[in-house]
Amino acid sequence: MSNLVEHLQGGLIVSCQAYPGEPLRRADITAAMVQAVVAGGADAVRVQGVADIIAARQATDVPIIGLIKYGHEGVYITPSIAHARACAYAGAEIIAIDATLRPHLNGETFADATRAIHDEFPGVLVMADCASVPDAIAAAEAGADFIGTTLAGYTPGYEYAREKTDGPDFEFIESVLSAVDKPVIVEGRLHHPHDVAQALSLGAHAACVGTAITHPTTITRWFKEQ
What we know:
Elements: H1 2-8, E1 11-15, H2 27-39, E2 44-48, H3 50-59, E3 64-67, H4 81-90, E4 94-98, H5 110-120, E5 125-129, H6 133-141, E6 146-148, H7 170-179, E7 184-187, H8 193-202, E8 206-209, H9 211-214, H10 216-224
Parallel strand pairs: 1-2, 1-8, 2-3, 3-4, 4-5, 5-6, 6-7, 7-8
């Protein structure tokens, strides 16, 4: 476990995901994207869905943060123990799980899923996808190996929801870094290299970039809207 934590220290994680119905939403394309970002220096990748995790595992030996998106509202990032297990069986070394204090599937909790992964898959770590400081504190207490800022600005209707910022929510990032003693992975609207540099300078353990590297539809739109 310590080797994986050390490997990600100061590192760049690239999220290689496409949304359902998009041209790039195929496991073989995800695998090629993973190989491309690893060739560019990615220290790890974040991949969604069992087929994509399996394809990515066959394509690279860098650590994979795996997740399963189930549904579209509420808790939909690896919302149950069964989803977390599926990610581990597919080959992910780190499982990303929604760690908000909202109801999870089957009456389970983030703590339940974390305990199950640690008990059943020695060496597999858990990343807590958080939306607020209370989430981060609770996730750290529940045994999360990494605290992620992934969901800040993406939980409408949640009592602890934060407003979505145009870029990274650095105020939130600093608050999380002050509130927990677990490694913090900054994720969410890191659109420029200087955003990553700033996050790391604040004390983040690693940074995860998705859209700005691997979502050409959005990148094209940015250029068209200039």
